[in-house]
Amino acid sequence: MVGVEKQPELFNRWELKYVIPVRLMHEIIGAMAGYVLPDENGENGMYKISSLYYDTYDFKFYHEKLDGVKFRQKVRLRTYGDEDARFFEIKQRCSSTVHKKRTMVDNESAGALASGEGLENADSAAQDIEYLFSVYSLVPKVNVTYLRRAYFGVYEGDLRITFDTGLKCSKAGKEDDAKYMLYPGLAVMEVKADDRVPVWMISIIQRYNLEQGRMSKYCMGVEALYNI
Asked: What's the predicted TM-score (pTM) here?
């Protein structure tokens, strides 16, 4: 399957985010040579990602992020490349630690979960998603698309570094009206690790004076599309 990230169905990890110029992205990729390899999926580690985010009618998940709630979560339906297979995901964050659950779904299963019908023989992730849809009456709010360049550590099996460019957003069902939510000359760089960031990556971060941010693609999309 093209573009499906090699991740377990349940995991915890650290995530560090940086917004950088695209020209600097290419320099950093060059500086990582010998330490990382491109994701084996996609074309030289590059593939399109589309994420449909769900929230309550009054944007509960969005406001939790803005208010800095220590434990917060979001639900999304993520598609890699142009594949029919998708993942419904729950992404929970406590400070800098991310806990993610996901279940693979086809179009029919995705529709059943989103409509509250549920699935037969649902795994634990699907059951949790059914519960959130039931309790919060979730509805689709924002669709976010971008091109991802993904790399894995040569020596650190848990290390993953991604660069996202061309970030666009649209309301659900209005993908033809998508607009940029981040200046096209910028990229979102994410460093993800289960334990700690390796010394060589820290050196690169320091060399380029990268400043960690707490940007959220979902929140950026909400702010670009809704008057709230």
From this structure: 0.90
